[in-house]
Amino acid sequence: MNQPQAIRLKRLDYRILETCIHCGMCLPTCPTYMATKNENASPRGRIAMMKAVASGELSPGGHFADEMYHCLGCLACQTACPADVPYGFMLEEARADVEASRVLATPARSFTRRMLLSHVFPSRVLLRGLGTMLWLARRTGLQSLALRTGLVRLFSRRLDALAPLAPPITRPFTAMGYRTPGNPNGPNVALLAGCVQDIAFADVNRDSVTVLEKLGCRVSIPRGQQCCGSLHAHNGELETARRLARINLDAIDPLAFDAIITNAAGCGSHLRHYARLLRDDPDYRERAEAWDKRVQDLLAFASTFPRLPESRAPRGARQRLTYQDACHLVHGQKIHAAPRTLLKALKEYEWIELPDSTRCCGSAGIYNVTRPEQARALGNRKIGDIRTTGADVIAVANPGCMVQLRALSREHNLPVRVVHPVTLLAESWQ
Amino acid sequence: MLRDGPGGSESHAMIRPGTIQHLISLLGRDRVLDADEQLIAYGFDGTATLRETPGCVVFPETTAEVSAILRHAHAEGMPVVPRGSGTSLSGSAVPVPGCIVLCTARMERILEVDADNLQARVEPGVRTAALNEAARVHGLFYPPDPGSMNISTIGGNVSHNSGGLRGLKYGVTRDYVLGLHVVLADGRILKTGTACVKDSAGYRLKDLFIGAEGTLGVVTEILLKLSPIPRAVKTMLASYTSIRDAAATVSAIIAHPVIPCTLEFLDRTTLQCVEAFAGIGLPVDAEALLLMETDGHPAVVEEEADVMMAIAREHGATDVKAAGSPAEAEQLRTARRSAFSALARRAPTVILEDATVPRNRLAEMVAFIQETADRYRLQVGTFGHMGDGNLHPTFLTDERDRDEMARVHDAFRDIFEKAVSLGGTITGEHGVGLSKKDFLPLVVDDTGSDLHRVIKASLDPRGILNPGKIFG
Ligand SMILES: Cc1cc2nc3c(=O)[nH]c(=O)nc-3n(C[C@H](O)[C@H](O)[C@H](O)COP(=O)(O)OP(=O)(O)OC[C@H]3O[C@@H](n4cnc5c(N)ncnc54)[C@H](O)[C@@H]3O)c2cc1C
Ligand code: SF4
Ligand code: SF4
Predict the structure, then answer these.
(1) Chain A residues in contact with B46 (beta carbon < 8 A)
(2) pLDDT digit of tens for each residue in chain A (430 aa)?
(3) Hey, are the CB atoms on A82 and B277 less than 8 Å from each other?
């Protein structure tokens, strides 16, 4: 029990950890439990270990650390839990303890994490740089020695596994400081451009603006905004996450907008909890509370409009459309109906439910980088499910999931268009 | 019942390194867990406040492996606690200190669904819901559906003789077990029962192991009856301003007589918690809700549903309505299944019991539960399989409050004594395990206790199988 004071889990309110009554109702929804049938890889097993760390019975060791990162952070258990256990929040604290205990620390891991989480994601320039290199690496079949140097070398052996997942770099759309006059009576909204989204899926941001404008909103993309910090919070780097949150709160005055819109599920589920993240920061707490109230997922926001734009008529046979629930939309933010309502209304498509659409695709933040085998197994199951629908198009509202599904469908020769729902709306709405 | 599990390293020291080595040689490294950190997740089941630390956890995959493990444990005098998914609510699956936890979760093959004979043969780690999915393909279903069915195992169901939401019409697990393979304490393998609907050859040995809570043998294969999926189902919800009215409705429906498949009850506290979780628009200002269901031939279902709704209205239901679609009916059932866990929204410790009374005494029993809670200054939420006379009074408490925990204990004693005085029993379906050991003498007389001991001693002479559970 080194430095007992430093253990974050110990500072959590007893009520939070004790909410779990170990009933096991969450187990059948947990991908890692169902794959292993080992309680150490189950939500209630992980919570039991967290409780043991909190009570001082256990100090965070190798098995504990390993299970905290074996967890996908998909939050399926949180949806299943009738007792309302805030698993995602507890996991963030537990991972922060793992990092502080340094049980997993190897020079390579520390360096990779530091580069990725402290330097790359918070920096658009570096993120673009890394993305370009990975993309080039794929194009050149990893032959070039030069590519094995610099940032890319961070991934050493993982590079081979990672390269196909590297998203192609799109031409940047996002004009920071962009403002449309829009309808002066319409809602005044700020769009968050995201980090990965803006580099790899700039067209999704462009389509988001289109959709918001078609809904009659005044849209701004305020300057100075940064990566939301979700990857940091989910990976035990709470300090960096707080720093990024403060930057965003400085850049965007929540009171100046009717809504702050995000189009990436993973970001949204984090962005709505800035107040919890900054609960010990008196300077920012209040602003963060106002912020949390205004942050909304684009699809949920759009579905609240009483009248939606007409969708265009099918040209020829209707395409079959299905939808994968991004974990941090359906489990993280409980948004299930809104995207379905919007997509089913598009006349161009025939709607098909995807079986087990709320099961994680394996992308899970940076999981497909850190645990490629498990991520792949989940991805393969997902591809199998998509195949049974015979869908031509699959919509999913998170950049990581889009990357995962695109890479795997290509690999499995499954001719399906993987697309963000907002792109379909932008195309179809007149 | 209300013990603080010390757990910890002292008890852990009981397992010998030689035992671990032997188990690893039998199963391979990855099917034996023995690091302190890894054992924490196996220290409990679904029961509040009970915790112990096992010596190791093993994951056999075949009957032969189970037999080899038990042979070794028997020779060494090592305690073994069988475990399925660990959702027991009586502490029956809580390890004894330093024991081998024998987890069947990886024995999860459905060996056969025999649609011609309406039967299925499964390994013990098959989830109850998984069996139902496999049966559905053949137009069949496996009726006993405990609230935990999505995760509970058939082995666990058999060992508790579990009931479910449809028990009223379809019965409990025992009514569906045709045959068993059981590994006895010394490693011998018993195959008992047949695929025949009728069988009067010798003692019904299989019945010994149903509800035995893993104290007499480890079940490794089960032959089960299936039923054809009924052609029609009608699901209804009735709201009441008094619990007594709900209880009176149940008694009246059964006395009518109509045998619906489901008559489930939620009181106000429970239904508010359930609604907070499920968000399906339950009437949160009602004092009590009855979830009613009838299934079978479409014409009969319509007729019975009308009778049930009329009886509910006659007995003071303020609102009675039928589910508009199968999806809505399923939402209602799912919400009901979440009742116990949803109550945890109100308090850090929820302790539920399982008192069961003849169905014409329900109103009296529910009233007594409420009075008892008031008398001991406790918060209670009650729900249950009212059609089976099976109530789950659940105390919402905090295990750190020793005074309150003592009152909970006393309240349960009063409730059990009352149930027994009404001709009922201390547990309808969750078993005795650890939490009801003290109360077993209320329902098992001296001769019965002697027989329990004789049977246990002859099947498990060294007392290695789930020792200290049920009695002793
Ligand atoms: C939310 C919730 C709802 C519930 N609803 C109901 C309900 O409606 N009706 C009901 O009856 N119960 C209910 N239960 C209780 C519990 O789920 C059942 O008792 C279930 O059958 C236990 O199955 P399991 O696989 O989890 O068994 P475990 O808890 O792992 O084990 C239970 C007992 O069986 C023994 N055992 C397990 N497998 C074997 C085997 N192969 N051979 C020999 N012994 C074995 C164990 O040693 C233990 O004594 C509920 C529990 C929860 C948490
Ligand atoms: S997390 Fe929720 S569902 Fe899972 S065991 Fe704990 S209380 Fe039950
Ligand atoms: S977040 Fe996902 S992987 Fe982690 S415990 Fe919950 S369900 Fe399992």
Answers:
(1) 21-24
(2) 444 447 888 888 777 888 899 999 999 999 999 999 999 999 999 999 999 998 888 888 889 999 999 999 999 999 999 999 999 999 988 988 888 887 777 776 676 666 666 666 666 555 555 555 554 444 443 333 333 333 344 444 444 444 445 555 555 555 666 777 777 788 999 998 877 666 667 788 888 989 999 999 999 888 888 888 888 888 888 888 999 999 999 999 999 999 999 998 888 888 999 999 999 899 999 999 999 999 999 999 999 999 899 999 988 899 999 999 999 999 999 999 999 999 999 999 999 999 999 999 988 777 777 787 888 889 999 999 999 999 999 999 988 888 889 988 998 999 999 999 999 999 999 8
(3) yes
B370-376 own/partner pairs: CB under 8 Å, 24+ apart:
B370/B243, B372/B411, B372/B414, B372/B415, B372/B418, B373/B411, B375/B411, B376/B407, B376/B408, B376/B410, B376/B411
Does the beta-carbon distance from A15 to B151 stay under 8 Å? no
Residue A32 domain-assigned (yes or no): yes
Residue B340 CB–ligand 1 contact under 6 Å: yes
Residue given tokens 């679904």 in the structure block = B46
Give, for B382, the enclosing helix (H) or strand (E): strand B379-385
Ligand 1: which of B100, B162, B383, B391 to mutate, most ligand atoms within 8 Å of CB?
Answer: B162
Best of A17, A19, A25 for a ligand 2 pocket test (most atoms within 8 Å of beta carbon): A25
For A149-180, b/e burial (b = at least 16 CB within 10 A) is eebbebbeeebeebbebbbebbeebbeeebee
As for how many domains chain A has, the answer is: 3
| CATH number of the B232-340 domain | 3.30.70.2190
B→A interface, C-beta within 8 Å:
7-8, 33, 35-38, 40-46, 48, 59, 85-87, 103, 105-106, 108, 125, 127, 129, 148, 150-151, 273-274, 276-278, 338-342, 344-345, 348-350, 400
- Among the bound ligands, name the one nearest to the CA of residue B429: 1
Domain over B110-228 is classified CATH 3.40.50.800: no
The tokens describing B321, both together, are 């309505």
Domain that holds residue A224: 107-305
